[in-house]
């Protein structure tokens, strides 16, 4: 066959090798993405994708928007490919509820992503493929520790709980700081101060301490643009296309560096806790000895309850008391227990700061809304005492404003990626075990059918004709996930946003420098950010 011979001489050996490799790779990609679908079920539909890169270009800069558009065409359960990895994308409240709540066990997994391994040396409870008994035990631990140091009441304070106490202290500092900035500069970027205040609240609960607004060490790990969110967002390309991990100076390098800094920052605090924890134990023993001698019974009972200063202490105590093995079903290493505090700290400042920061953006762009919130605060609380958690039910307009901020910004557009823990059938679609699943909260919160005019910012939509919050509608705003992986800090997050806003707005009015425009274009990531705005101004409210 002369023609074949001609072809072979024409191609060099390397070219031939390249052709064969390409062919095999293409074949492998097709094979890898094809699954044996059981009879009666369908594979989720989706658009045609490029070989090797899949739908990366379709996702673009704003995956939450492009996937919402795709869901119009393909429905609430659709499938795309990122690199060669198939990903199921869920939209729509009913479908997402079906998956995460009714079939919660099937969808509670997390994919084994490259970026997850870079967080807390791969020890994270949140960003970790484990969804078995060890994860469940750690999650319970996080919930209990959090409860004791946030919504429980502090016996030594007049505040209704630790959280209220911490927030009112930080809000007070913040108001003074803002006034000082106004006097000195005349305008400022509120995010950079807000984030320290919010970090201080979670620091107080986790580590029993706070930091100054100019502390460079804290600033270097909390004053972020979106270095963390960019990499942990749904659809970060390097998670799916390994070659991208080796680009010099990519966002991955910044991310690794940041994680190292956070890790050593917290490691230092934990070491300090171990050191002083033992000391307190020793003191307690002395007190016990003392009490045996009949010297001080009351001091003894105080010391044995009061030496757990914060969440870190309570986790250390858990390890030392072996309280964890009561059920003996899982054994957690000490590392796995104490590192839970990393998850809480990490999840506790960026989310809440982003929420309050978006709120401020909506306030300055909707001065009428800000005035209504302040009128409500004046009527219900007045200026002579500070707002408390117990005021929340009497402040429906503020509540409606917070709900509308959550809905309209949808600043966590997708939950953290999920994965299936077994082969499953969702609404007639076959989804095999281990499939990566993106859950679009943004889509629910902007669903035309649910909201009518999703793009308008209108707190009033949550108020009934009698002026109370429409409970049924408010539960359709989904920002904390649903089901087994639902946010552990939801109550704290909601309370904290409420307290900060009530305390700030009672005292000060926000605006931007005349002639300056604010840019509210969301920047994609695990949390959506807005561009920093240097032109905020505050004015103390005249009484
Ligand atoms: C407004 C504030 C907050 C919002 C909107 C928010 C939202 C979320 C979302 C969407 C998830 C992922 C759910 C999923 O993967 O399905 C999550 C997980 C989580 N959140 Fe929050 N969160 C907030 C505040 C907090 C706070 C204050 C804490 C702790 C102090 C916290 C701790 C966690 C933890 C530990 C997880 C991981 C749960 C797991 O993987 O099992 N969050 N949050
Ligand atoms: C905080 O971050 C912003 C945005 O990255 C930056 O412009 C600003 O200088 C930072 N401020 C401090 C005090 O680190
Ligand atoms: C990477 O970026 C940092 C600052 O962004 C710079 O200092 C450094 O030189 C860069 N390194 C390389 C290899 O380009
Ligand atoms: C032991 O397990 C049962 C059932 O899983 C649970 O109800 C109980 O609270 C657990 N006990 C402890 C101390 O965790």
Automatic annotation (TrEMBL):
Entry EC number(s): 1.14.14.1
Record carries keyword Membrane: yes
Annotated membrane topology: Peripheral membrane protein
Cofactor: heme
InterPro entries referenced in this protein's UniProt entry, alphabetically: Cyt_P450, Cyt_P450_CS, Cyt_P450_E_grp-I, Cyt_P450_E_grp-I_CYP1, Cyt_P450_sf
Pathway field: Cofactor metabolism; retinol metabolism; Lipid metabolism
Superkingdom of the organism of origin: Eukaryota
MF (Gene Ontology): heme binding; hydroperoxy icosatetraenoate dehydratase activity; iron ion binding; steroid 17-alpha-monooxygenase activity
Keyword Ribosomal protein: no
Reaction(s) the record says it catalyses: (5Z,8Z,11Z,14Z)-eicosatetraenoate + reduced [NADPH--hemoprotein reductase] + O2 = 19-hydroxy-(5Z,8Z,11Z,14Z)-eicosatetraenoate + oxidized [NADPH--hemoprotein reductase] + H2O + H(+); all-trans-retinol + reduced [NADPH--hemoprotein reductase] + O2 = all-trans-retinal + oxidized [NADPH--hemoprotein reductase] + 2 H2O + H(+); (12S)-hydroperoxy-(5Z,8Z,10E,14Z)-eicosatetraenoate = 12-oxo-(5Z,8Z,10E,14Z)-eicosatetraenoate + H2O; (13S)-hydroperoxy-(9Z,11E)-octadecadienoate = 13-oxo-(9Z,11E)-octadecadienoate + H2O
Positions contributing to heme binding: 487
Subcellular location: Endoplasmic reticulum membrane; Microsome membrane
Main localization, broad class: endoplasmic reticulum
GO cellular component: endoplasmic reticulum membrane
Stretches that traverse the bilayer: 6-30
GO biological process, alphabetically ordered: hormone biosynthetic process; progesterone metabolic process
Pfam family, one: p450
Record's keyword terms, sorted: Endoplasmic reticulum, Heme, Iron, Lipid metabolism, Lyase, Membrane, Metal-binding, Microsome, Monooxygenase, Oxidoreductase, Transmembrane, Transmembrane helix
Protein family according to the UniProt entry: Belongs to the cytochrome P450 family.
Function: Cytochromes P450 are a group of heme-thiolate monooxygenases. They oxidize a variety of structurally unrelated compounds, including steroids, fatty acids, and xenobiotics.
Protein name from the UniProt record: Cytochrome P450 1A
């Amino acid at each position: 066959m002369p023609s074949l011979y001609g072809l072979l001489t024409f191609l060099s050996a390397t070219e031939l090798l390249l052709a064969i490799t390409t062919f095999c790779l293409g074949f492998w990609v097709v094979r890898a993405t094809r699954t044996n679908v059981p009879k009666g079920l369908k594979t989720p539909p989706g658009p045609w994708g490029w070989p090797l890169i899949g739908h990366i270009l379709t996702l673009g800069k704003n995956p939450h928007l492009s996937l919402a558009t795709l869901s119009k065409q393909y429905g609430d359960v659709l499938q795309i490919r990122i690199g060669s990895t198939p990903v199921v994308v869920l939209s729509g409240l009913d479908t997402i509820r079906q998956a995460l709540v009714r079939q919660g066990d099937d969808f509670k997994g997390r994919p084994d992503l490259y970026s997850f391994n870079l967080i807390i040396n791969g020890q994270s409870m949140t960003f970790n493929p484990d969804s078995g008994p060890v994860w469940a035990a750690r999650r319970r631990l996080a919930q209990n520790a959090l409860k004791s140091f946030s919504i429980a009441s502090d016996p030594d304070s007049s505040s209704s709980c630790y959280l209220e106490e911490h927030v009112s202290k930080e809000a007070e500092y913040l108001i003074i700081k803002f006034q000082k900035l106004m006097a000195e500069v005349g305008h400022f970027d509120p995010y950079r101060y807000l984030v320290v205040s919010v970090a201080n609240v979670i620091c107080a609960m986790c580590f029993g301490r706070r930091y100054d607004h100019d502390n460079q060490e804290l600033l270097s790990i909390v004053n972020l643009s979106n270095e963390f969110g960019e990499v942990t967002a749904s659809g970060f390309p390097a998670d799916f296309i390994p070659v991208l991990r080796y680009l010099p100076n990519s966002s991955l390098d910044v991310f690794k560096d940041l994680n190292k800094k956070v890790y050593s920052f917290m490691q230092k605090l934990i070491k300090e806790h171990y050191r002083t924890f033992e000391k307190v134990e020793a003191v307690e023993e002395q007190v016990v000895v003392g009490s045996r001698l009949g010297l001080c019974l009351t001091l003894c009972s105080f010391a044995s309850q009061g030496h757990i200063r914060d969440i870190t202490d309570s986790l250390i105590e858990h390890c030392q008391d072996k309280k964890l093995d009561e059920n003996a079903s899982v054994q957690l290493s000490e590392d796995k227990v104490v590192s839970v505090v990393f998850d809480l700290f990490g999840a506790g400042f960026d989310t809440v700061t982003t929420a309050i920061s978006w709120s401020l953006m909506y306030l300055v762009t909707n001065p009428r809304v800000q005035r209504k919130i302040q009128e409500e605060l004046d009527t219900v609380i007045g200026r002579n005492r500070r707002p408390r958690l117990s005021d929340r039910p009497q402040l429906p307009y503020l509540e409606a404003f917070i709900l509308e901020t959550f809905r309209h910004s949808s600043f966590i557009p997708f939950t953290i990626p999920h994965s299936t823990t077994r082969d499953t059938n969702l609404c007639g679609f076959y989804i095999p075990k281990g499939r990566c699943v993106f859950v679009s909260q943004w889509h629910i919160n902007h669903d035309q059918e649910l909201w009518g005019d999703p793009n308008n910012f209108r707190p009033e939509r949550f108020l009934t004709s009698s002026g109370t919050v429409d409970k049924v509608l408010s539960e359709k705003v989904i920002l904390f996930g649903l089901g087994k992986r639902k946010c552990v800090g939801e109550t704290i997050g909601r309370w904290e946003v409420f307290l900060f806003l009530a305390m700030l707005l009672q005292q000060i009015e926000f605006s931007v420098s005349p002639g300056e425009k604010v840019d509210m274009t969301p920047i994609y990531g695990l949390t959506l950010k807005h561009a920093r705005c240097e032109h905020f101004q505050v004015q103390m409210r005249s009484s």
